[in-house]
Amino acid sequence: MSERSPVELAALDMAGTTIDEHGLVYRVLDETVTVATGAAISAELLTRWKGTSKREAIAGLLTALESDSSEGAVDKVFAEFTDRLVGAYADHPPAPFPGVVDALVDLRGRGVRIALQTGYSATIADAILSGMDWPVGGDLIDAVITSDLVPVSRPAPYLIFRAMEATGVTSTQRVLVAGDTPNDLAAGTNAGAAYVVGVLTGSFDATALGREPHTHLLPSVAQLPEIA
Q1: What is the pLDDT of residues 148-161, one digit of tens each?
Q2: Whole-model pTM?
Q3: Which domains does the chain have, with CATH numbers?
């Protein structure tokens, strides 16, 4: 076994960070809200909601588009979004980014617990992980924290705190947070994580991620063992 890492928990975003889902989530989000409202969503508006809870994103988009954003309306659009996305993933299965599995095995071999924390609901996260045969408590991940488990998603720190709770980690100075969006990095900073790592496998480049406070920018989660 490798030398033990000073990091006890790696709290990793799912889509665009650990898992390549072909950009389907925001394509389906755009399509679903556009159909529901009859209004086009600007790239700038959609970008603002990347990395957050998808239900919160739908509520925010409906409000910005001056459409019905009541709880019932949001529930209806979110249910349609979930059905569409699960279907899209069945047709185009997500997969880990190259080198990610080896990195997770390396980290766990050094005693690092791995939690996936995501703006997805449990229904969507379960569909992805089942399709990849990544059971919680298996060889790769110790916990999955979804947006429906916290009162507010990113950039609030609660996903990370729940990941700490689920894995028994008590100090934020032993936590590494990694993600591919500015909201991911802001959540890591708000949580007080020792490592706040931006990865370049998503839709934001180094310039965009570099505007947020961070400790590292890496090409991929595959490089995490080099710093953890």
Answers
A1: 999 999 999 999 99
A2: 0.92
A3: 9-20+95-226 (3.40.50.1000), 24-91 (1.10.150)
